[in-house]
Design goal:
single chain; mainly alpha; about 80% helix; transmembrane helix; Probable membrane transporter protein; transport
Length: about 250
Amino acid sequence: MTAALLPDGLSPAGATFLVVVSFFTSALTAAFALGGGVTLLAILSLFLPVQVLVPVHGVVQFASNFGRVLVQRRAVRWWVIGPFFVGAAIGAAIGARFVVALPEAVLDLTLGAFLLIVTFARLPKLAAIGPFGLALTGLATTFLSMFVGATGPINVAMFSKIFADRRSLVATLAAITAIQHALKVVAFFALGVALSRYAGLIGLLAASGFAGTLAGTHLLKRLDERIFRLVLTVILTVLAADLIRRGITGLW
C-alpha cells in the first residue's frame, strides 16, 4: 500500500489494518444488522485525529450501507422508508426543542435500559403496525436518539421485533442507515469539514467494506433464522449491558 494515498501520520501498516477491520465490520453488519459501525468507530479513534474521526466514519459508513442496499436491494421493504422518515423528521424537530445536556452516564443508562426492554418485549409484527405505526416508530426512535445520541442500536432493537424475515430486516435497515449517514455527510461538508487528505483512505475502506458486504450477505443467506435471532439478541444484550455498566461506573 503506497504512502501517497494516506494522510500524514498514518503508516501503510496501520492503513492495512484498518482496511482489514473495515472488511470484517462490514461483513458483521451485513450478516447481523449491527455491531460493525460501532466497532469500526472505536478502532478508527486509535488512528485518526478526533476532529475528522466522525466525518471520516460517516462517509465510510454511508458507502458501506449504500453498497449493502445495492447488494440486498431485492429484500428492502421500500414502502417502510417514507413513513419512517416522516416520523423521524417530526421526532427530530420535537427533540431539538427539548433536548438538554444530560450527563453521559445518565444517557448510557437510559439507552442500555431501553435496548434491554425493547429486545425482550413483545412487539407487533410489521404488517400489524402499518404506515402510521412506522411513522410513530420513526418519531419515537429519532426523538430518543436526540438524547442518547445512538440511532443504530435503537433502530435495530425496534425493527428486529417487527420484521419477521432476517433478510428484509438487514436490507431495510441498510437503506435507513444510508440515508441517515448521507444527511450527516452533507451537514459536515456544509460546515466546511475538509477530507481531501483522507480521500485515499476513505476509498480503500469503502472498497474493503463492500467486499465485506458481499461476504456478510453470503453468510446471511445461509444462516438459520433461529441462529440469526439468537446472535442478534446476544449482540444487543451485550451492548445494553456494557452501556449500563458504563453508566453505573460514571455515576460513581
